[in-house]
Protein: AcrR family transcriptional regulator
Organism: Motilibacter peucedani
Amino acid sequence: MTTPATAPRPMRADARRNYDRLVAAAREEFAERAHDAAIEDIARRAGVGVGTLYRHFPRRIDLVEAVYAEEIDTLIATVDEAEEMPDAYAGLTRWLHAYATYASNKRNLLKELQEAFERDPGLKLQLRERLSAAATRVLGRAQEAGAVRADVSGDDLLRLVGGICMSATGTAEQNERLLEVVLAGLRT
């Protein structure tokens, strides 16, 4: 049980703003430059000093982990949006497109992510379980509506779409075409 003496203090508002700006800037730099993104450029883009960056993220890998975790949170939040759509198949399609974009963007950070997962094996498992639960949820709704095959699991979808998007040679257009093939194959 956490006691008041050991409970982490919430961030001050200005510290939280800096943290959020650093994560957003890192996401943009990593998307543009992948592993060539410089810490100094991330701090500059966030409008803070390098010291502020290092106070929040002592190592580069800490920043990579924060960006990755935020992207997982955002992706999982799209399940709620997909479930609000009246057409369960359209919701599944929307979520799979969001997942495909997410997976394609991770292609440039594989080395850093592998380092993060080696450092904290539980991180990979935790995030993978969250993704699996999200995929199962949105797929299950489409299956219950009779819109897609019942013999496909959420993990099947993650592996299939992730594999398409992580291909080093696949272009965005090829990925989109293959995703449409997957979606057509899911229909009942």
Remarks:
- The first helix runs from residue 13 to 33.
- The two ends are 49 Å apart (CA to CA).
- The chain has two domains: 10-58, 60-186.
